Amino acid sequence: MWRPPLPHRAGNCPPCPSPQPHAISQGEGVTIAVIDTGIRTDHPVLKGRATEGPDFLQANDKSQSWYGEHGTAMASSILDVAPEAKVLGLRVVRDEDDPNYRGGSMSNPDALSQAITYAADHGADVISMSIGSRVLWGGFNERDLKAIDYALSKGVVLVGAVGNLGDKTDGGDNAISYPSAYPGVITVAASTPDGSRASFSSVHSYIDVAAPGVSVYEADYRSSGRTSGEGTSAACALAAGVSALIVSKYPDLTPRQVERVLERTASHASRGYSAETGYGVINAEAALQAAAKLTPEKKVAIGEAGTGLHFGPGDDGTPKTYSQGVDSFKVGVAAVGALMTLLTMLGGFWLFKSGRRVQRQGSGSGEPRGPVAYPQYVQPQQNPYQQPAPPHDQWPPQQ
């Protein structure tokens, strides 16, 4: 099973997978769009293999010391796995050290959809999204979903990080995070060296696979060297690199086939699915060997009947028996609805009791009293074959 090894202590050489996958593919001819915080193309780890595209935040701060911290690290991990590939940096969010950082929210709400569309139109074969919504009451954006559908229709593989909100002891709420939760995105969890879920990795039914997410040796934007990082962001970048190896060697495979080959060759695929790590930790060598046996599928237009749960013809293999997790927005709406229903029931019960009290108070005189007492009627003689019509206000409204 492929995992990034520990850094070489004698020097500063980059980590790389075991030689077996690289004997099959090194990502030649593939472009991976890194939709992130921007990248530093002059970093030694990226130099000559990276370009910077438009800044979809429409800012002018590439010269600042904090620019491209996260994106540069992600690009380096991708290139460690696919060393002959090229990366294209597209900025949609700010780094935490950015003085204008606002919890990961986008100053341009259309930045992600614009970046995905730009990548699909400018030669990207794989899109890596080590980003996630941190908005408690939202995150879904229909324009983003349409952009993802557009990229998939052009055969682009999209990979997303599930999020780092899985550790409740550290304040995590395991909220659903976009863009990884969108249909069509290969969602990646973070694993530990023994293949289990990293404690911070979110747990959701839409996770597809896992990748190493602790002690990942990635580019350090503050220097010309590297540093140890962790997170589902790193796991997503590594999975995007493996996807690039597959796309490079077998360019006619559809995005759905790339996803399924990653799932079927993952560490515990034979034992079944887990909402913590999907089908397990990806295995680059096994995935490449399995991809060699596939026949490219006929492309199916997005929205066409039979496209399956996510994309492409048929089911993508995600189990239907796992709960979707907690959607904060829906929980909030349900709570408000339940409160309103409770108040309505309490109000109705109070009115009912009030009416009963008024009736009891008026019973001593033999005549009804109060606004809620019902008038007394004497039935007249009628034709036995004719049903009597009830008085106008004798009965309460129909339930």
List keywords for this structure.
399 residues, seven-stranded parallel β-sheet, two-stranded antiparallel sheet, 8 helices, 9 strands, disordered C terminus
Give the topology:
Layout: H1 19-24, E1 31-36, E2 50-55, H2 69-81, E3 86-91, H3 111-121, E4 126-129, H4 142-153, E5 157-161, E6 186-191, E7 209-212, E8 216-219, E9 226-229, H5 232-249, H6 255-264, H7 284-291, H8 328-362
Parallel strand pairs: 1-3, 1-4, 2-3, 4-5, 5-6, 6-7
Antiparallel strand pairs: 8-9
What does this molecule look like?
The structure is a single chain. With 399 residues, this protein is α/β, with parallel strands linked by helices. 28% of the residues lie in helices and 11% in strands. The protein has eight helices and nine strands. The protein has helices spanning 19-24, 69-81, 111-121, 142-153, 232-249, 255-264, 284-291, 328-362, and strands spanning 31-36, 50-55, 86-91, 126-129, 157-161, 186-191, 209-212, 216-219, 226-229. The strands form two sheets. A seven-stranded parallel sheet has the order 2-3-1-4-5-6-7, sandwiched between helices. A two-stranded antiparallel ribbon has the order 8-9. The longest helix is centred in the C-terminal third of the chain and has 35 residues, at 328-362. The N and C termini lie far apart (65 Å). Residues 1-16, 305-315, 321-325, 363-390 and 394-399 have low confidence and may be disordered.
